[in-house]
Specification:
By secondary structure, the chain is α+β, with helices and mostly antiparallel strands. It is built from 9 helices and 20 strands. The chain is globular, with a radius of gyration of 23 Å. The protein starts with a strand and ends with a strand.
């Protein structure tokens, strides 16, 4: 199976969306200057407190919240060669961020890193190595599958060619891509709109049709499975078919949205214990082949409720997409889809958005930047009545 990456970039925001061969969105990675303490970055921090009862230490890495460092990762650290080494308050420590912070929780660290200690005088805390770029992370998500990278602008080719062969690079406005009636950009926009809606709903189709409705709280995520009409089979067979297809979508969405902690799936009530076992086994097998995060499933109840726990890499994507920084980045990418000179009729545009989003855009959409990169002026108009995720582009 060939995977596809939609690569979009503006001077301050880069986004990579990974699709399978059927146009299903698998992961979404992006680079944003305000998100530096994420998975894969190497931090040089200072120990604030050691808690032996927790088997961990709290470390200041320059993030909003202190990071947590499990002491059992010290054994293979280049600075701490024995597992009996004791950390002390105020001690500098080198570690890799294994999970980004979210809500009131700080990042998680792993002291096992091949980097040598920084030279004397290095600021502490600081990031010694930034996280992998959005493109590198998307390529890692693709695993061993061959990948085609689709560009929205030819000016992005050189940046992409540093990571993938030239033969694997295509340009949307020059090469044909068979993804049904929608283009990759249309598919991505539709997925993003669904993710930021008040009640995210994700339809699925094929031999059966239905949808998944996701609701998030600070403690748990719930996924409700709903079915469309199925003709020509018994009710029991139809229920099993929908639940099996829904299980595949549950695994995809848990990975895409980075749902973690406790996730409760409300399947359509199976008609037998045997069917419950088949659905649970299919869900477990799908996670095993598509998700590299630790996932544990508990037995399904007789009413179709199944609880799973999943390790996450940071904040859920549904939360990240609702930040002013991401919304401003999304607006920028939409503007950059029509770069300077490609549409002579486009003389000027107006962006109407929430004041917090406009505040971010003002830093980047200066008059000089708009004229040089876009070839047209952009007027920014704040509207406090709009939600963070809602914006309008006129012109």
């Amino acid at each position: 199976m060939t995977y596809h990456i939609l690569y979009e970039s503006s001077p301050w925001h880069t986004r990579c969306a990974l699709f399978d061969d059927h146009g299903k969105l698998l992961t979404l990675r992006y680079d944003e200057a305000t998100r530096r303490h994420i998975e894969g970055a190497i931090a040089y921090g200072r120990v604030r407190q050691v808690i032996p009862s927790l088997g961990a230490a709290f470390v200041d890495i320059g993030d909003i919240q202190d990071a947590i460092l499990p002491l059992n990762t010290l054994a293979l650290n280049t600075q701490h060669s024995t597992p009996n080494t004791r950390l002390t308050q105020g001690q500098p420590i080198l570690a890799r961020i294994s999970r980004g912070g979210f809500q009131e929780k700080g990042a998680r660290l792993d002291a096992r890193t091949a980097l040598k200690p920084p030279p004397s005088g290095t600021p502490c805390p600081s990031l010694l190595q930034p996280p992998p770029s959005a493109l590198r992370r998307a390529l890692q998500d693709a695993g061993s599958n061959p990948v085609t990278v689709w560009l929205t602008c030819g000016q992005q080719r050189d940046a992409v060619a540093q990571h993938v062969p030239e033969r694997a690079i295509r340009q949307l406005d020059m090469d044909s891509a068979d993804f049904g009636s929608e283009s990759l950009t249309d598919k991505l926009d539709a997925c993003l709109d669904a993710m930021v809606s008040p009640r995210p709903t994700f339809p699925f189709s094929g031999n059966v049709k239905g949808n998944l409705i996701i609701e998030l709280t600070s403690a748990v995520a719930t996924i409700d499975v709903n079915a469309g009409p199925i003709m020509g089979v018994t009710k029991e067979d139809a229920t099993l078919a929908v639940n099996l297809k829904a299980a595949e979508e549950v695994a995809r969405l848990c990975r895409l949205l980075d749902l973690g902690g406790s996730v409760i799936v409300d399947f359509i009530t199976p008609k037998s214990k045997n069917h419950r076992g088949i659905i649970a086994e299919h869900l477990s097998a799908t996670f095993g082949t598509t998700d590299d995060r630790f996932v544990e499933l508990r037995p399904m109840s007789r009413h179709g409720l199944l609880e799973l726990t999943r390790e996450r890499s940071g904040p859920s994507l549904t939360l990240l997409l609702k930040t002013p920084e991401y919304v401003a980045g999304r607006i920028g990418l939409e503007l950059w889809r029509t770069p300077a000179g490609t549409n002579p009729k486009l003389r000027a545009q107006t962006v109407v958005a929430h004041p917090d989003v406009i505040h971010v855009l003002q830093k980047h959409l200066t008059q000089a930047a708009c004229l040089s990169h876009l070839g047209r002026p952009i007027t920014l108009q704040p509207n406090g009545a709009l939600p963070i995720t809602t914006y309008q582009i006129h012109g």
